[in-house]
Amino acid sequence: MSDKKVHWETVFTTKAENEVSWYQKKPETSLDFFKNNAIPKDAKIIDIGGGDSYLIDHLLEMGYTNLYLLDISENAINRIKIRLGEKASQVTFIVSDILEYKPEIKFDVWHDRASFHFLTLPEDITTYSDIVIHSLNNKGYLFLGTFSENGPLKCSGLEISQYSEAKFEKLFANDFDLQQSFTQDHETPFDTVQNFIFCHYIKK
In whole angstroms, what is the distance from residue 148 CA to residue 107 CA? Predict the structure, then answer.
């Protein structure tokens, strides 16, 4: 088991859902993306590093029928399965390091809030962007949220990569058209504030 996997399995074994900084009972920013872009209810949607976040719960309530959740932590996925109960059967769960993921289908929406910024090596960041490019249908949506250049330098005890619109564009501009970019403060359960940047792309 890799050090990275050990770290995340430990986090999701020892921390309650509201004892991690990224906790949101209702992920309004992500849900607004789905509503504002009128994403079809049968769109193939994958949430990267979603852990036991509440995005999937809300998407199910909104009537989405092709949901996939990928996380490196089996403990995280088991937690959300327990929470969803019978509804868990409506979601395809994938336990995998994103850098090792080889999807057998193409997606219409790639959603990643607070996972991508844990990649710090240039070769890993390039691998991730290549996986995104090859995993999305043409005209597919890419929605990424990471710490901004005004955000933290660490999360969960790990170094992270900060991003700006310019940094996102260097990675994705050749294959995607930027639709929207904005920063937003996230209030953690510990009464601290983290500044995020969100970018919404459409694949060319």
Answer: 26
